[in-house]
């Protein structure tokens, strides 16, 4: 019987199956797991034994391929970054490590802390090699022995998960992550002639599985084996790996297609869960395999004994970081990404809790992430988890949540199993050789058969010729006999015809007399029919007269109905007049609500207590006063009441009013409604976007321009609305409005709308063609910091989308920003005193510099010096790292720095 080791630690080569599985059987996952409670391990279900063995029955009863293995958890602390050194300089770290005791202390305050124990505790000084040997190497060795294995990183955004797993170490081999080191060990152990390695690389983005090696393959389905419960992705691209170089190139391609975004916590925050799946097939030597049947061993099985193949799988999971929206600053599409990430991580946490508590139901189907990891937690894989945390006391809550996730994961136990199969490929090659011999022998026999057939065919042709000659002679004799018989028959028929002709003439004379009497009878019958028809016509005339009288009576009734309809029409006119009066009353109420909304906004800005009406004709309910006083959402409550009592269509109809004041108040109401994401779809469906664009085109009032541009900016936060704005000529109208406006607030609204549109890479050519980029650059004449911040944000969004298009291969030419002349302004404001302007401009410069086609223009425009400054003096660590990596990877920049004798590498 196989020996179960604590924590799944198995000496290499110690666990081996003493006999192969049957040809018709496959190793099934027992689905059992163990939970560590009260200081001991208790099995939650019976261990299932392999059922496909052959050979000695006594030996098979003692064999068991299952090994218990608890999920091993290591914690790794990230050192403080530059921003934390500045902002948290006066505060101590919230985490204290005791690696020798494998303990971690999480401080509640200066005198109280909580202590946690893990399998490994890695300090901020732990090397990548040390992390790999502690976390991943035992799992890799198990995979080489035939077990499935999983290595996963979990933690808050920006704590070093991707650095731990996916670092390529191109500049320094010591920085290589777990993926690269694991593949090096696997390639060193396998035999290329007998063994094989294949790799799939994909990401889970917004609950959609997308292939990182083929971006067009963006909706991969999960397939579950109904018998074994194994999860696979047959639609994903699979690449065979022969050397480390090809594997590194595969990782570069996958990383370029992975979704990332700029947040307050991380400049390049991963927005998807990335999974690297490595399939290993190894031949096992020294195993006596045989193919059994019901009555004994067949002769074919004795002649051909296929070797045993062990199939194992290594899954490396780089989870997207958990984040709080208020700290990461996610908005628009980035906010939806954060929600999807947090939901999937929440589903994973629920599964871990259920497994840790031995729950009867584990909700693995709540998310595609938990379905993909069902073998890693509570399954048959050996799992090692590394949780990454930061030292900052500002993120103590997120750090505590990560630590508790790791503590619960340590209670989950898997049942490790080896999956062995016969190597039918080798057996097939041997059978093919045997088949070639049989085919050669068959061809030799076939040639002998062909010669014999040709001899028989010649003898048959001679016999057929003799038979055809005899048949022709007999046929000629028959023809002559039939010809004589034919002539005799003709003569007999002519005699008979003459006799029949004489008889026919006699009968014709008799029939002429009979036909005359028949004609007289027919004439009498026709006369009777005419008499009956005349009577029927007279009856039809009487019926028509009766119908004419009825029609006259119906006409009189119709005239009376017409009089009634005329009276109803007059009543409808009276009701229409009443409705027009009601519309006038609603317009006055709308103006009153608009005035109250403006007064409420001013009071809220001054911090005063606000009292708003709850309905158009009655005071606000008492329970709403406290809500408005506490949350400051009085204006939203008023807008909701406006929706319910007035209706969106009536509000939009007031945008076409001839009264300028009515238009101003109506557009303010629409702008306030558009600020809520729940109202945006209703506004667009009701034609609100078209009405706002019409106001920009037709109105000359700058107040209307400012409020309408703000409403369009709110609607432009949705990707679907962005395409509608572009298709209806919105960017041209915004550009014209920007050229005419002088008020800084109007320019800020217009710049914000264009900046949101710049974040959609599908619309960039059209946006630039209709003057969007030039409009942004023209608004810098205002010099107001808020306007310049929006302009800088739009340029940064545009540059980031271009950078992604370069990476995906959909763009090859020079940047559109450089062609439109924005580079001088970018260089001039790269060191602006205002932090929002400077941060966006620095990001735009880094994205432009990442692609060699822009390097020459940037050197000529003086951007190289700003990149050097950013790489050295930028306050944000992520931007400084991005600038340094861009400078060191660009041949043009390196050549220019070398020409200027500046040592930078």
Please specify the SSE layout and strand pairing:
Elements: E1 34-37, E2 40-43, H1 57-62, E3 66-70, E4 72-77, H2 82-87, E5 95-98, E6 103-107, E7 113-117, E8 120-122, H3 128-144, E9 149-155, H4 161-166, H5 178-189, E10 196-205, E11 208-211, E12 223-224, E13 231-232, E14 239-240, H6 244-256, E15 260-261, E16 269-270, E17 273-284, H7 299-303, E18 308-318, H8 325-328, H9 333-356, H10 368-372, E19 382-389, H11 396-409, E20 413-417, E21 420-422, H12 424-606, H13 622-631, H14 634-645, H15 648-653, H16 660-674, H17 677-685, H18 688-698, H19 702-715, H20 719-727, H21 730-740, H22 744-758, H23 764-769, H24 772-778, H25 785-808, H26 816-819, H27 823-828, H28 835-849, H29 855-860, H30 863-873, H31 877-889, H32 891-899
Parallel strand pairs: 4-8, 4-19, 9-18, 9-19
Antiparallel strand pairs: 1-2, 3-20, 5-6, 6-7, 10-11, 10-14, 10-17, 12-13, 15-16, 17-18, 18-21
Helix pairs in contact: 3-5, 12-14, 12-16, 16-19, 18-19, 19-22, 21-22, 21-24, 22-25, 25-28, 28-31, 30-31
Quick tags:
905 residues; alpha+beta; 3-stranded antiparallel beta sheet; 21 strands; disordered N terminus
In short:
The protein is an alpha+beta fold and 905 residues long. Helix content is 56%, strand content 12%.
